Amino acid sequence: MAEQHSTPEQAAAGKSHGGLGGSYKVIVYEMENFQGKRCELTAECPNLTESLLEKVGSIQVESGPWLAFERRAFRGEQYVLEKGDYPRWDAWSNSHHSDSLLSLRPLHIVGWLR
């Protein structure tokens, strides 16, 4: 199966910077184990299934942390995703009532450096 990338119009373009100057990048795959259509994000996405993907099967967080939500528009149960690989839904959630992830946003950490 050929790997498809989202267009810049579909995915949020540019770099987002956190409170401490970090950049954010996450790759979301339609199928488990990083297979199928994929979408790279560098900024928030309130609805991953609107035109980007049919569902979320796996995630690779390359930089950030990210806040993932079970529902569209940043609603429902929340999951903090740190840098790393999440090959299937139970890698980011221990919820038995929902296996969906429909919106993502960078988690901006603001703090004092001493």
From TrEMBL:
Homo/heterodimer, or complexes of higher-order. The structure of beta-crystallin oligomers seems to be stabilized through interactions between the N-terminal arms. Keywords: Eye lens protein, Repeat. PANTHER family: BETA-CRYSTALLIN B3, BETA/GAMMA CRYSTALLIN. Residues 1-21 are annotated as: Disordered. The keyword Repeat applies. This is Beta-crystallin B3. The lineage of its organism: Eukaryota, Metazoa, Chordata, Craniata, Vertebrata. GO terms for biological process: lens development in camera-type eye; visual perception. GO terms for molecular function: structural constituent of eye lens. Residues 24-63, 64-108 form the Beta/gamma crystallin 'Greek key' domain. Crystallins are the dominant structural components of the vertebrate eye lens. It comes from Bos indicus x Bos taurus (Hybrid cattle). PROSITE patterns: CRYSTALLIN_BETA_GAMMA. Gene3D superfamilies: Crystallins. Belongs to the beta/gamma-crystallin family.
